[in-house]
Amino acid sequence: MPIVLGISLAFLLLGLLPLGGFVLRGYRSTHWPIASGTIIVSRVHVEFSASDEPSFCPALEYRFSIMGRKYVGNRIRALTWSHTSHESASKALSDYPVGKIVTVRHHPSRPEDSVLEPGLRHRDIVLSVIYVAVCIYLAAELTSQLGFPVL
Question: How much is the pTM?
Answer without folding.
Answer: 0.70
